[in-house]
Amino acid sequence: MAKESRAELTFANASTSKPYQREVAAGTMRRIARGIYTPNTKDNLEIIVQRNRHDIIAKMFPGSVVTHRSAIEIGSAAQPHIYLSGFRAERNVKLPGLTIHVLAGPAALEGDIPFRTFYIASQARHFLENLSPSRGTAESRKTIPRDELERRLSEIKISLGEKALNEIRDRAKALAPALGLQREFKTLDGIVGAMLATQPDAGVASEQALANARAEPYDIDRIKLFESLALALRSVRTPPYRPTPDIRGDLTTLHTFAFMEAYFSNFIEGTEFEIDEARKIIFERLNIPKRADDTHDILNTYRLVVDTFEMSRRPGTEDELLEQLEHRHRSILDHRKDKNPGVFKTIPNRTGDTRFVEPALVKGTLCRAFQLYRDLSSALARAIFMQVAVSEVHPFDDGNGRLSRIMMNAELTEANECRIIIPTVYRDDYLTALKAFSQAREIQPVIRMLQRAQAFTASMDYSNYGAAKTSFETANAFKAPRDAALAFEERKAE
Hints:
Elements: E1 10-11, H1 18-26, E2 30-33, E3 36-38, H2 45-51, H3 53-60, E4 65-66, H4 68-72, E5 81-87, E6 91-95, E7 98-104, E8 113-115, E9 118-120, H5 123-129, H6 146-160, H7 162-179, H8 182-195, H9 207-214, H10 220-235, H11 251-267, H12 275-283, H13 292-305, H14 318-333, E10 350-351, E11 354-355, H15 362-373, H16 379-393, H17 400-414, H18 427-440, H19 444-459, H20 465-474
Parallel strand pairs: 4-9, 5-7
Antiparallel strand pairs: 1-3, 2-3, 4-5, 6-7, 8-9, 10-11
């Protein structure tokens, strides 16, 4: 017969503790504190207490309210100090690795969240409480630092909007008398007012929190991901400089390269033509019956990427970034009015399991990303960052993939470095790396993938259409990923 499993903690009183005391004497249980026992005889008692701290509160302090900083840190891996309200007198209960501070103060109020047998203070309540006076070390103080509190308020404004911040302030005003925290409400009111630009800035101690709160709302998780990408791009070993083919001095090379770039950038998005058919569309104005939109897709992309003046423009400000995205998107999709060319999306979009940045957060996320982009020193680093950022934000209803690659190659063109072409055979590598970045936060694969794609692009012959077609065929560029692998010999850097 299977042995019955036992809970890690057992609670007893004077009348029920004797059996457990005998087990303690026998070495099959340990006493944690008065009335608390565990059959776990191996793990450190501090570890046992920490992972069972919610059970301890539920059993020992039913009806209490987890308050002050503890309401914010309730989900942390460890809390060496927990503050509870709802009692007449104050006292401390010390356990291995945990001190429970019992505070005199109100029990549960409107908005407090029920959890097991106790409550967790509402946002409005714990923001007020965290503005109250507090003493002790950084670890033991019952309040979080002021700048941390302001950062949390600014993130609420950024992610949930002004309405959410106003609602917290309104609820705090209603709660302040019951908590005896009217003075703290005045402070909170000043902070929120400063963040909403309705009161003087003096209400906020942290300039960064104020700047964040007043900025365009943005996708916090995406920006953290972009920060990781920027850090990796700053520390990655710089690859050999790969000069661009002579697209500024030789007209045939320019037209050949731009054709290949436009052809593959559309093919990867599903606008598929045979290579010779695509050449006739661009250079002989071939009309394909019932494929007018597809032919304009490749024509418009070609017209944009062959324009070396436009493809040498880099954004110097956030506004210039937004303007270039709108202009280039309009240039690509001007013929597809149903795709809202040049207009940022108003409806959320997704690909498979990846949900892109919400429409209301697009401009703010792009502007935040720009601040990271402008600090990157190498053209290839900026190019990779720009491609990934635009792809990850997906700012328009359609055409985001082509636009992301155009923004990437504009960085390289301006620096006279070789642009990047993603051939058909490399499509799966490209999409897999982007998916790994988006869903698994894997940074290096997308960097390595685009570095290799640039090395491939630089190794091809663009002296004329025939030579280019042959070199791309030799590299398996036109084949499906399931049928072949990209094969080329990297040219040595000059």
